Amino acid sequence: MDIKEELFREDYLFTREDVLKSLELFIEHEKLNEKPGYSYEVVKNRVKLCEKFIAAVKKCKLPALTELWWFYEYQFLGNSIELNLCQADEIEVENNEISGITSTVEHTLITVECDYLTVEQYAAMHNVEPVTIRQWIRRGKLRHAKKNGRDWLIPDTEDKPRRGFTSVQYIIENDAHIESDEFPLLAVCESIFIFQDEDNKNKFNCYLNNYKTKFNSKLELTRSEVERLEHTIIESSKARVAGNIQYVPYIIRDMED
Prior knowledge:
- This protein has about 260 residues and is α+β, with helices and mostly antiparallel strands.
- Helices cover about 30% and strands about 30% of the residues.
- It has helices at about 5-10, 15-30, 40-60, 120-125, 130-140, 225-235; strands at about 70-75, 80-95, 95-115, 115-120, 145-150, 150-155, 170, 190-195, 205-210, 215-220, 240.
- The strands form three sheets. Strands 10-9-8-7-11 form a five-stranded antiparallel β-sheet, covered by helices on one side.
């Protein structure tokens, strides 16, 4: 076994037991609630979602992956947790550690969603007025909210917005098209990445991409324009927030010679 394969076998998840052991450690990390930190109710609800996900994993039959470069991976996506079957394409090793990996999600095996709250319930949870919640929604501040007819539902795992702007990437799901008179290029996008200019806090850069057609474009937006853009994307219910880099527990396992 060469060093690349040995490190791969040591670092990644290949059995249901691996996934469950890692999730238990992930819950311990969530309970610590370290920086940037969440409100008490949100931490409680995030842990509840993790426990629901563990119950779903325990119910299913997951074979041990013995074919090289295949592995299991779970992602906390803010309003849900997914278990994915992945394949590593490229692995870089430096100083006897995996320094980089390129992988592909071949299939999402399990998805467990959090509970959703009405505007009034969410306002009560955070001790603010419902009108404030509706204002946050209009400004695109509650990125995991979803439209239910004329009403809005908000995940119980989504905290109230922080001060300042947090960069975000939206992924358009299932080859859908978002129609917008103000932002017509949304209709050709697979991915939208938005970040704040470091030198001018009132300026925002938006990159619109379609990896299949190799289309890419850039928009420069004001604060009010980026709020309208995010509201348009969220209201469409055709996109999800891309998963951020998250804490991944290292599990200790007995390695065969």
